[in-house]
Amino acid sequence: xxxxxxxxxxENLPFLREKKLLLAISGGIDSIVLAQLLRQSGYAxxxxxxxxxxxxxxSDGDEQFVRNFAAENNLEVFVTHFDTERxxxxxxxxxxxxxxxxxxxxxxxxLEENNLDFILTAxxxxxxxxxxxxxFTRGTGLEGLTGIPVQNDKIVRPLLKFSRExxxxxxxxxxxxxREDSSNASDKYLRNKLRHDIxxxxxxxxxxxxxxxxxxxxxxxxxxxxxxxxxxxxxxQVVTEKENQxxxxxxxxxxxxxxxxxxxxxxxxxxxxxxKDISNLTEAQSGKFILSDKFRLxxxxxxxxxxxxLEKDERIYEIEDDAGIDFPIKLKLETVFQSDKTSNPAAIxxxxxxxxxxxxxxxWQEGDYFCPAGIDGKKKVSKYFKDEKFSLSEKENTWLLVSxxxxxxxxxxxxxxxxxxxxxxxxxxxxxxx
Amino acid sequence: xxxxxxxxxxENLPFLREKKLLLAISGGIDSIVLAQLLRQSGYAxxxxxxxxxxxxxxSDGDEQFVRNFAAENNLEVFVTHFDTERxxxxxxxxxxxxxxxxxxxxxxxxLEENNLDFILTAxxxxxxxxxxxxxFTRGTGLEGLTGIPVQNDKIVRPLLKFSRExxxxxxxxxxxxxREDSSNASDKYLRNKLRHDIxxxxxxxxxxxxxxxxxxxxxxxxxxxxxxxxxxxxxxQVVTEKENQxxxxxxxxxxxxxxxxxxxxxxxxxxxxxxKDISNLTEAQSGKFILSDKFRLxxxxxxxxxxxxLEKDERIYEIEDDAGIDFPIKLKLETVFQSDKTSNPAAIxxxxxxxxxxxxxxxWQEGDYFCPAGIDGKKKVSKYFKDEKFSLSEKENTWLLVSxxxxxxxxxxxxxxxxxxxxxxxxxxxxxxx
Lengths: 434, 434
What we know:
2 copies of one chain form a homodimer. By secondary structure, the first copy, chain A, is of the alpha+beta class. Helices cover 39% and strands 21% of the residues of chain A.
């Protein structure tokens, strides 16, 4: 295996030569074998071992084993301890995810502090196969069937083309010792079941199954890269971005026979996975929306609009006197002697004596109504929004000026006629949105 | 299951209602159950049974069973006999492929002759799962993992969302009888092994595995449609088609980080599968090429050129006299009194007395040389082609005019100076390419 390993590295990962490498080492067979292969091939490698303190004396035994291994082989070793359970609890993560985050943050720190170039891990082909099967068992998309890559950025996996069997053979031929890995993987049961019950059958049905599997992975990765290209190309054609909103033009989108596939691709990163709901929304009436954790997808006439869910500002801001306010919006109050008749939606003129101070500025609430200027009777604010075809985010961004529970102004939009100044004998207040 | 079946049809295949359906029926459990479900749901269905004569009396037993089933249920039935082995032999096909071709040709004929609308087959979800696993076991790309579709064109598969178990339960609950299917599938051993050894484990690891598998299929189909879009979009950007040649512009292509994935997508339909060879060819020197059964992929300066392999015409065509020839090219011979000095590559003037009739027209052969007009000495024709940067297909499409083994003209390209007419005392022959 040593020769094949060296050939693989010089052919496929030539850039590792002359670089300073940091090997993530657990003490298990895979990482110990990789350390030996690298050492025997003359690569400049340091070791990094995480003690996650999850298995008591066993964890400490692993640490000691790695320290000894490093000393015997004259290799630099970095060791760190993590309070993994606490970190998981504090950050609301699974133990596995917590351990993963902790170790990669630390590895990158080590890289930086010690001027090292790459992090190496000992993932091998059977790991990829098992992950493929786990994802397949649970149901997945293409991204679940493409395996981990040989390299992403600073992380390189030089054993990814090698099978577990090759690694085991190398270990036994070279009388290499390692620590039995009592893994913490959450999928341990599933992984073992697949490893012991399914993989041997697959291998028996095709004597070069692992080679075929590598071909499969490589084909699927190619298809994935094509699908990603299409996603980007078509996105540019049918989506407009404006501030923090994305407008999906349904007319253009729906000309594509597979437009649902695109929508799904684009919306998944925003936490939308309810496939049928998205599909139904494209046909729904304006104003319908679906929510993910942090985003809203709104049907608005010829668009789907994707926007972050802003926390609705429930606070009430008081205007004490003629000075106006600067926050959350800028209103200037000014006593004038005559209304300006030019129609300017950014300013209203009201009979000052009809107002009760302090005025308040707030968002609309269920049940709000007002007496819109220009028409008889009163109208619910929600009805006004609907008639004016306000989008959800427009509604939520609209402020009301209120005097003693009565709406004076849907700010910037429509005045309430109850506060009209009827004659010039009482003081007129000009309220302007700046 | 009847209710679920009816719901499925009205929701997902509403167009089948009121249509005349032709059900492909083997007599096995799947097709018999589908026939019952359709009949009980009030669909207008006729039956089509193929006797492939591959299993002697068993085949005849199947036929009789289907005839009886049709009679008992008052259904129209079409039956045909095939000499499958002979068809396979005559057409150099496997028995499976032969049977498949025979039956679909016949089904489509029946559709036409009897004014029927759709062919129905009884493929179910476990069939799709087994095919997925077979392809996965052998190594495949995305196309091998996307299953057969519910519909392509005239063929519809109404049971594709149903499991084998549902079908079996329906059969036993309704005391339906069927013929045990001793399938001829070439993958029978593999299929059975997967069905009995692997699928049960997968189902035990995830109690809704078949649902997850359906999701997987649907996601993979979406990704496939995106990958196909990218393939078409990028093809338009980097490929020029000219007659029967396709020019892949390497400069544009290689700006794509995943250009190899595109090349592979585009070239696979032409029988190119040697992945590394294609990749190497993009870096190879001009003139290198690789072959598939019927196509050649040629590196030619900044292009890869894909072209059909034309059978090289080895024949020799004789020109008996001044009349010229019409085939394989049109040459007109004419005695004139003076050379026309305007340079016209489509015509030459030669000393008629230097020619030996019959002249011949043929393609170039290894070892051919000539004395090119305008330079001293002689030159190999192959060297001339190379200097003039002829592509392989240009070389093969070039005709030579030959007089007694001596090349008179590389037709349309370059004259041989040995046949120049030197004075006006001997007759001049004008030879023109029309």
